[in-house]
């Protein structure tokens, strides 16, 4: 098993210096008034690193979709988003589904390894994988699959903002 770790945690400051006290992660796209077992974790998460702006969305069925903003300092492309491809952050886990655990936490299989998202209410409070546990963000390569997960919900945009700015 190959393992690469990068973790940071704790901070309450968003990518533009704003407080993360408000959450902009609702979606009218395909939303339903019915409660699901993924309501607590559903939303848009900011998996950005430095000038590379990346997000992932967990929908009401627990499916994860990763997005890359092409107009950032890393890509220097158009002012639009695309679903993560090839070397983009989280491209390998786009389409993966979370499992709801009886404890109220969630898990996801990544490269044959279980990654756990520990929850308190509707907040991810800890991310654990392969005997490593952290608060904040975790970037790993497990079983040849690279990923970057975070507990930080996006506060500067919503999933509707992203889907309305998809690259053509």
Query: How many structural units, i.e. domains?
Result: 1
Give me the side-by-side strand order of the main sheet.
6-7-8-9-10
What is the percentage of strand-forming residues? 35-45%
Give the N-to-C terminal Cα separation: 38 Å
**Topology pattern, helix = H, strand = E:** EEEEEEEEEEEEH
Give the number of DSSP strands. Answer: 12
SSE map:
Blueprint: E1 5-8, E2 43-46, E3 54-58, E4 64-69, E5 81-83, E6 99-100, E7 106-110, E8 113-120, E9 123-129, E10 132-134, E11 137-142, E12 145-150, H1 159-164
Antiparallel strand pairs: 1-11, 2-3, 3-4, 4-5, 6-7, 7-8, 8-9, 9-10, 11-12
Notes on the protein architecture:
The termini are far apart. It contains 1 helix and 12 strands; from the N terminus they run ββββββββββββα. It has one domain (5-9, 35-164). It is mainly beta and 168 residues long. Strands 6-7-8-9-10 form a 5-stranded antiparallel β-sheet, with no helix packed on it. A hairpin with a 5-residue loop joins strand 3 and strand 4 (64-69). The chain has one helix at residues 159-164, and strands spanning 5-8, 43-46, 54-58, 64-69, 81-83, 99-100, 106-110, 113-120, 123-129, 132-134, 137-142, 145-150. The model is unreliable at 1-32 (pLDDT under 50).
Task: Give me a quick take on this structure.
The protein is mainly beta. It is 4% helix and 35% strand. The protein contains one helix and twelve strands, in the order ββββββββββββα.
